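can u do me a favor
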């Protein structure tokens, strides 16, 4: 099987094929050598990630306390010692229910701090880079690589890093252009760009499939991407083994949903869909939830195709209003507990969080469906959900929650893990977590970003031992 695969792969690559098939074939070759690809998907929300809302429901009475003011979010009770609990024995909270089917690969991580970063509306580059930068309206300069940038260098592909967003800086609304949101950097003074338009992201990422075909117009490229690959795909399918044919089928299906949306936009299926509910093309929709869903579809296709191993979806900004969820107040107002029609601000924030995690679950399901090695793609992927404002709308950095999902999850997943509170013995920082990610990538680091001068240096170096045991 392996020798046959190696033989046909050599013949294919020597003969020349469509550029978008090269990463797929490269990953097959890596499997032959026992080297499975590693992938990271970061999902960064604004306005804080409420720690109390991540506690398993049956543990909340002892681990959660009322908010500082009436109507404010509940608060997490700080831990004096490490809490490490298997999730299989407990009930996920309401907004985490979309991840219930992945509980064995899920880690809820609490108790880390990031006081080396600025607080407020956003820590900017600091949230992923572990350093202080900028002010309330400006990200300042990138002092060094952020963790997604460092991983992009460690796990290179056609596109080292793919950034997808709705808008620019944290206090801006929806855009339709390339933006620099100030949260990711490849190195000092090298900020990474994000694509705010799903349609433009689609074109820039997958348009290389038409390379060398001068007769293909831009509109044809947008609507019929897979057609350019048909000859190569048929050639591969005639020679590839049954197991690898299944992988190729999943590879193609990731793009097929994108093509389907473009066809709907052009009305090519209008007649047969006339009796069905109206289908809005999410790639050009003005509704924020549609655009976010489209970005997550692009993220899944990007990882499955292998054209990038590191994707960052900046899920929203403070000026986004989730009209698609029935929420009439923008995220900024919800963070200040302003009233919203039909629900409390806490419930509105919970709806937003649930929506984000529904998108994460969709990507996880697509990855899990693709065979890889003795398992599937999700086994070799880590999805990281966090906020660039730490634990609340005006984050302090004393507590910085994370949700980790995938077989690459440190420690294997299936855990609720809460570290001792800030300045307690055994406390750790987000820098330790990012060191852990670098260890998982095969490019270990002992320190990341800058130190918190209020904590012992030794506790801020190296990975989190509980997650690498």
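np, heres the sequence
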């Amino acid at each position: 099987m392996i020798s046959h695969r190696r033989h046909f792969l050599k013949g294919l690559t020597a003969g020349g094929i469509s550029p978008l098939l090269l990463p797929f074939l490269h990953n097959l070759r890596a499997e032959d050598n026992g080297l499975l690809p590693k992938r990271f998907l970061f999902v960064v929300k604004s306005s804080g990630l409420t720690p109390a809302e991540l506690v398993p429901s049956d543990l909340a009475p002892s681990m959660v306390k009322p908010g500082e003011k009436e109507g404010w979010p509940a608060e997490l009770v700080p831990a004096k010692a490490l809490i490490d609990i298997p999730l299989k024995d407990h009930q996920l909270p309401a907004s985490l229910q979309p991840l219930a089917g992945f509980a064995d690969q899920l880690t809820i991580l609490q108790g880390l701090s990031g006081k080396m970063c600025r607080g407020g509306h956003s820590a900017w580059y600091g949230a992923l880079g572990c350093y202080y930068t900028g002010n309330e309206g400006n990200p300042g300069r990138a002092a060094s690589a952020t963790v997604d940038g460092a991983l992009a260098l460690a796990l290179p592909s056609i596109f080292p890093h793919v950034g997808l967003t709705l808008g620019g800086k944290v206090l801006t609304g929806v855009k339709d252009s390339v933006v620099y949101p100030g949260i990711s950097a490849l190195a000092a003074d090298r900020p990474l760009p994000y694509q705010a338009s799903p349609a433009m992201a689609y074109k820039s990422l997958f348009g290389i499939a038409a390379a060398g075909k001068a007769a293909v117009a831009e509109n044809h490229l947008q609507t019929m991407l897979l057609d350019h690959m048909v000859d190569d795909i048929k050639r591969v399918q005639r020679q590839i083994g049954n197991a690898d044919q299944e992988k190729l089928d999943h590879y193609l299906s990731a793009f097929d949903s994108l093509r389907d949306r473009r066809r709907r936009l052009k009305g090519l299926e209008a007649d047969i869909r006339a009796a069905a509910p109206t289908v809005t093309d999410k790639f050009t929709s003005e509704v924020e939830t549609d655009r976010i869903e489209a970005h997550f579809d692009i993220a899944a296709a990007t990882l499955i195709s292998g054209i990038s191993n590191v994707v960052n979806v900046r899920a929203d900004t403070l000026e986004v209003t989730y009209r698609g969820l029935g929420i009439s107040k923008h995220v900024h107002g919800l963070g200040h507990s302003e009233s919203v029609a039909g629900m409390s601000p806490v419930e509105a924030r919970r709806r937003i969080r649930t929506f984000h995690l529904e998108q994460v679950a969709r990507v996880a399901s697509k990855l899990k469906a693709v065979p890889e090695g003795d398992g599937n793609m999700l086994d070799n992927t880590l999805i990281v959900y966090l906020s660039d404002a730490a634990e609340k709308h005006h984050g302090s950095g004393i507590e910085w929650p994370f949700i980790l999902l995938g077989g690459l999850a440190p420690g294997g997943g299936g855990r609720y893990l809460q570290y001792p509170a800030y300045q307690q013995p055994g406390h750790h920082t987000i820098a330790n977590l990012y060191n852990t990610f670098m260890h998982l990538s095969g490019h270990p680091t002992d320190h990341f970003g800058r130190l918190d001068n209020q904590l012992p240096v030794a506790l801020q170096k190296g990975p989190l031992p509980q997650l690498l045991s």
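The CA atoms of residues 287 and 323 lie 7 Å apart. hope that helps!!
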